[in-house]
Amino acid sequence: xxxxxxxxxxxxxxxxxxxxxxxxxxxxxxxxxxxxxxxxxxxxxxxxxxxxxxxxxxxxxxxxxxxxxxxxxxxxxxxxxxxxxxxxxxxxxxxxxxxxxxxxxxxxxxxxxxxxxxxxxxxxxxxxxxxxxxxxxxxxxx
Length: 142
Description:
Layout: E1 9-12, E2 18-21, E3 27-29, H1 45-67, E4 76-85, E5 91-101, H2 106-119, H3 121-126, E6 131-138
Parallel strand pairs: 5-6
Antiparallel strand pairs: 1-2, 2-3, 4-5
Helix pairs in contact: 1-2
């Protein structure tokens, strides 16, 4: 792979620590959520993954829409990342993305979401490893 950009982030202290990017643009205190025995007084890896995946997926949609000369309107993605044990007792993730493209029809949105799912590096990285539910919502009748 020829890297176009490389992010550099350091994590110290795990779920009850902090993360910081090398350029200082990202500085986040971490705390396990109450559901996992923590106090919830900070962000957590699932929130960070949910944010990153949603942003990346929207970027893939924007990129493809631009190539196809589609006007999507402002794409909005509600992202949920769940964590829990699998059949072996190891932890696994589940993801749900609810995607809205207000200027596209339902069919156009579904087609764009399918194309973005094939192109998005996060989707490609996790395909076959965790369950992902994609829900498309077009905003324009037609």
